[in-house]
Write a structure and sequence with these properties.
single chain; alpha+beta; Helix Hairpins; D-amino Acid Aminotransferase, Chain A, domain 1; OB fold (Dihydrolipoamide Acetyltransferase, E2P); 7-stranded antiparallel β-sheet; 5-stranded mixed β-sheet; 36% helix; globular; binds 2-(butylsulfanyl)adenosine
């Protein structure tokens, strides 16, 4: 029976991956999204019924599994070097001269590729299966982010040719449209914007919750292959091999007989980069012949056979008309440059963040200055300098205001921090941002509570904290400007619906510093309800795997603040969800309930993630390292220092067999993996 089901699951997985490859790599889908989702749902259902049969290349892994608390560090099989950068033809001519001098009398051909502006990732394939994904880190070792990489649809979980063992490198990136959509939704939700697609890619890849990573729609291009028993002779053949295995390889590349052809490719790319659906920051020039590459060798940092030839950032000059202050939800005050509108790389710019007081002082920016704006990889333009010769005679150094522009309370600067803050919790500007955050889609999702309504509610003193929203009535709302009775009723309905949002979103909506959506969910899952959370000591908070001292401090400060007590009372009275529902409470009590486990060594019948997921599903927690708080260690083959530490501390150690038996007692049966 189980064999037949396993075969059915394998067939479904193969079918799904085929369609996935057609959609995400070849951009030539054969079936509709709905059909795909239905197949995926079929497989998910089978896996739910038979979790032990889930395969390590199951396409369901792409939707993201259980959160991890910390990424293990992994040492690269082959160190990940970086490239020398150059910005001028002169530098590239020098590179060409050095290469040819080192290979006297030989024919040298180059391959020029796009330099994708993302984050490097190393993929390890064994038996054609994706077994590991590791970030560059310091080049020697990086973070193991396999579960996150599996959510990237263009990364094959299994190569299309059997029996391959290889290291593949490439760039994870975010397409321009996905980046814009992400920032739009972050803006709506009052979250900090990402400066550019590269930053959002790096941030996404480091998220602890693979489900969130999946929602970020990252993509991948492969550009490097290390295959001990490989037969290819050139980089261009390597790329063809990668593509043949089903990996996405960028089609824009040129084989160049000499450096002049490289320059032609560079010019073409620079001219057309605006039309690409993703960011590039230059081209990469590589000696095509792999044997020549090997003989050229590398310096401590970079190979001598390749160089990055980067584009210059687009610049524009304009007048700085004024510097205004923006007050954020948590009181951080950010200076913003108001500029004479100017066209820069295709869009009109009239505002640019100046980050903080030090930044203004460092550049000695003055009202009236002619400033230089730059838009490099960054979508957000930066003020990078002042044209001093053009400074008006009347320009005086900028005096950072000493009072909040919204509430006039004195601004404070923590000597440890660069940020200036308004510490008045009743500051109307902060309150407005807090209300907008509370109403955001990922928080309480209150329809009809936009900035125009928020402004009036605060300015007319109708709302002093988010709890007051629930005391509003139709008459009051209909009395606001530009709010018809129908819209007022809509808002009341929206508030009513918000009473159903789960506890973690209420917690996120409160806008406690450093408590984003992911942390809120972790806190909600751990403490279950607001009472337990508000009573939690610093030690109890820090015992939650995702929670460090900064978050702990901020959560404690929030609940200790007497001014927040009436707010919490109002939320309670209004009937918001202040506990997770019973169904969310994990499995019935069992051996693993409430225990903190550490996994070490190689397990024969589970991937790390599967073992971790089993423990978490049974109400246990996973910690990255052994400490006094560890309740048990599951030790596989060749377990190392963690096992020693566990023995030293007298922590219970389970062998894989014992672990399997304990799982069986708790109702999870694992049969040996058919693979
Ligand atoms: S080859 C030895 N090819 O640029 C490094 N890199 O430092 C081999 N990059 O970290 C890199 N597109 O993340 C190569 N077509 C491409 C690339 C590329 C982007 C990134 C890579 C590397 C950085 C250069």
């Amino acid at each position: 029976m189980s064999k037949k089901i396993a075969a059915e699951m394998a067939a479904l997985a193969a079918q799904l991956e085929e369609h996935n490859h057609r959609y995400h790599v070849l951009a030539a889908p054969l079936i509709t999204d709905r059909k795909y989702d239905r197949l995926l749902a079929d497989l998910q259902e089978l896996e739910r019924a038979h979790p032990e049969l889930q395969r390590p290349d199951s396409p369901t892994l792409r939707v993201g599994g259980a959160p991890t608390s910390q990424f293990p560090t992994y040492r690269h099989e082959v160190p990940m070097l970086s490239l020398d950068n150059s910005y001028s033809r002169q530098d590239v001519l020098e590179f060409d001269r050095r290469v040819r001098e080192a290979l006297p009398g030989e024919l040298v051909e180059y391959i020029a590729e796009l330099k994708i502006d993302g984050v490097a990732l190393n993929l390890s394939y064994e038996g054609s299966l994706l077994v590991r994904a590791v970030t560059r880190g310091d080049g020697v070792s990086g973070d193991e982010v396999t579960a996150n990489a599996r959510t990237i649809r263009s990364i094959p979980l299994r190569l299309q040719e059997p029996g391959i063992r290889a290291e593949v490198r490439g760039e994870v990136y975010m397409a321009a449209e996905d980046f814009a959509a992400l920032n739009r939704s972050r803006e709506q939700e009052g979250e900090a914007l990402f400066a550019n697609p590269r930053n959002s890619t790096a941030g996404s890849l480091k998220l602890q919750d693979p489900r969130l990573v999946a929602s970020r729609r990252l993509r991948f291009f492969a550009y490097w292959l290390h295959q001990p028993e490989g037969k290819t002779l050139t980089q261009h053949e390597q790329l063809e091999t990668l593509a043949g295995w089903g990996l996405p390889v960028n089609p824009e590349r040129a084989r160049c007989a000499g450096i002049e052809q490289v320059f032609a490719f560079y010019d073409e790319c620079e001219a057309s980069r605006e039309h690409l659906p993703y960011d590039i920051d230059g081209i990469v020039v590589k000696v095509d012949n792999l044997d020549q590459q090997r003989r050229l060798g590398h310096t401590a940092k970079s190979p001598r056979s390749a160089i990055a030839y980067k584009f210059r950032a687009a610049q524009a000059r304009t007048r700085l008309l004024n510097i205004s202050l923006q007050v954020g939800r948590t009181g951080t005050v950010t200076p913003v440059a108001l500029l004479e509108p100017v066209l820069l790389a295709g869009s009109t710019v009239q505002r640019a963040t100046l980050h903080n007081e030090d930044e203004i002082r460092r550049r000695d920016l003055r009202k009236g200055d002619l400033v230089i704006l730059e838009k490099g990889g960054d979508v957000i333009p930066k003020v990078v300098g002042v044209v001093l010769e053009e400074r008006p005679s009347w320009a005086v150094p900028f005096q950072f205001p000493e009072h909040c522009p919204a509430c006039q309370s004195p601004l404070l600067r923590d000597p440890e921090e660069v940020a200036t803050r308004c510490e008045n919790p009743a500051c109307p500007a902060q309150l407005k941002r807090r209300l907008e955050h509370f109403a955001a889609r990922t928080a309480l999702d209150i329809e009809g509570l936009g900035p125009a309504v928020v402004d009036q509610l605060v300015d007319r003193l109708l709302v002093r904290d988010v709890g007051d929203l629930y005391d509003l009535d139709l008459e009051t709302l209909a009395g606001l400007e530009r709010l018809a009775k129908k819209s007022a009723q809509n808002l009341l309905d929206g508030l009513d619906r918000s009473l159903q949002r789960p506890f973690d979103r209420v917690l996120f909506g409160l806008g406690i510093r450093h408590v984003g959506a992911t942390v809120a969910l972790a806190l909600a899952r751990h403490f279950r309800d607001l009472d337990a959370l508000s009573r939690a000591s610093a030690e109890e908070l820090e015992a939650v795997p995702e929670i460090g001292p900064t978050i702990t401090h901020s959560v404690c400060a929030f609940f200790a603040n007497p001014q927040n007590q009436p707010l919490l009372a109002k939320l309670r009275r209004a009937g918001l969800q202040l506990a997770l529902p019973e169904e969310e409470v994990a499995a019935p009590p069992n051996f693993f309930t409430g225990k903190t486990a550490v996994l070490t060594g190689a397990l024969m019948h589970y991937t790390r993630e599967q073992a971790a997921a089993c423990i978490q599903r049974l109400g246990g927690r996973i910690a990255p390292s052994v400490s006094k708080k560890t309740d048990l260690v599951v030790a596989g083959e060749s377990a190392g220092s963690k096992l020693d530490k566990a023995r030293e501390l007298g922590v219970l150690v389970l062998s894989e067999e014992e672990f399997t038996a304990r799982l069986a007692e708790a109702g999870i049966v694992v049969v040996p993996d058919p693979l």
